[in-house]
Sequence to fold (313 residues):
Amino acid sequence: MARSRLPSPKALVAFEAAARLLSFKQAANELAVTPGAISQQIRTLEETLGTALFTRKARSVTLTPSGEVLSKSVSESFQRIQDTLGAISARAETRLCINTNASIVAKFLLPRISTFSDRFPNIDVDIDTQIGLHSMDADGPDVFIRTTQTPPPQSHHVLLHKELLLPVASPDFIKRHDLNAPQDAARVPLLKDMSLEKFDGTPDWRDWFKKAGLTRALPSERVRFANSGADFLVDMAISGDGLLLGRSSLVYSALSAGQLTCPFGPILPTQVGIYAMCRQEKRSNPRVRAFIGWVKEEAALLSTINALHSAFR
Fold:
């Protein structure tokens, strides 16, 4: 039967209740309609199918053979629908969607997300990196992690970390090029992260050279990446391809693992922060609260880089 010829859902609901209860009156009570309405829906269904579904007696009804077949099929179908809806609802109650950029995912979240899953095994995490496709709509992601100077004022937001820019390279690169002092940076390939340049006042290699007192040295920027390429530059630095003026949030894990080293200063502060944010009405959601609390704890570890900042001033 073509979908356009399927019986109306109301008729099937009325039939299922009447067949299960073997009573038009009880079906009417269950569905909060009149017995006449149940009778009309079933009569319409019988006319559509061209066969009787009930044998009507003075004080009772019984199913015909066709009614028995349809009752079994409709009952099983309704149960499958109910089970599916229940599964979807239960899944929605455990799922948390995080929206952020690929660099933060690769260098900040992924090395740590297993600890969140261990602490909150009943929360399933979706990580979405489609930055340009989402606004803070009610049906959008639950939590956003954004690199910005000014988080949306209408949002609930928590500052996780204020970015620092520090020179880092692999231990092998440092040894190979004998990097011992800031002036040594003038003679090696430099890797430039341009992902923060859209923010006013963000320093770059030229500012670093000036801060280091190397005003006559012109930086030789071998490779430059903008926007989503920041994590690639970290990988290049780990591979020994150059000296990177890296973002503290993205190089911290590699520094902790000994894959990168900060051979000298200066370390430059920025006015750019990493924020966890959500809609105001979502801040009380237990899953949102759990994630923001956890990510704040993890980001606190980045503050240890502040000790390097103080040492290299």
